[in-house]
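Section 4.2 – Deliverable D4.2 (structural model, holo form)

The reporting period included a commitment to supply a predicted holo structure for the target in complex with zinc ion. Inputs used:
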Amino acid sequence: MNTSGAPPDGKSVEHLDRAVIFLGPPGAGKGTQAKELAKHYGVPHLSTGDMLRENIAKGTPLGIKAEPVMKRGELVPDSLVLKMVAQRIEEPDCTHGFVFDGFPRTVAQAQYLTILLRQHGYKPALVVHFVIDPKLLLRRITGRRMCKVGGEIYNIYERPPKCDLRCDHDGGELEQRPDDREEIVGPRLQAYERQTEPLVAYYRRLGRLHEVNAAKSVDEVKRQVLDIVRGAR
Ligand SMILES: [Zn+2]
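Output (structure tokens):
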């Protein structure tokens, strides 16, 4: 007999009941952690990129507007993204909270989200900021190598293969993805810093910003994130 009050399948009974926002540079592990947290609480993981692709695939009015913009490789205007987020969080699976990944991107989006959450009766959002030494992050990204055969990921600095540039599993050749080259990553990280600084300042001013040390292992960062969420007002 189950007397502990936990459901028989042993799943967590904790509720998130709020929005959690993940801010962090590309390559810092924020996407992985956002998905992990969403899974832990059984709430949706909301990536604006995925939402846009879904709207386009379903041919919704929003998708029809967004498609040509995305095809041209341009940023979808704020008004469209905000409308899409507003619609998405009204869906029934969002009742117990949700995790944002890659949103908000600007202070204007953040201000709108603050109002939107209040209107829907949610507690103020919790913001998890991934902090990592830029030099370490650069090494993590530029050191990444992928097996051409099985897609296994290595890192020539942190997790090198046993044999030079050959996969441990299948001997496949390891290669660097074009986007992971320093001349591409360096400017991307600088652009990220410029864009995110005001957003970080905005949430710090509201007292909603919590920092994790993203230089730690995936498991350790996961623990830090859960501590923040459990301890939040
Ligand atoms: Zn392989």
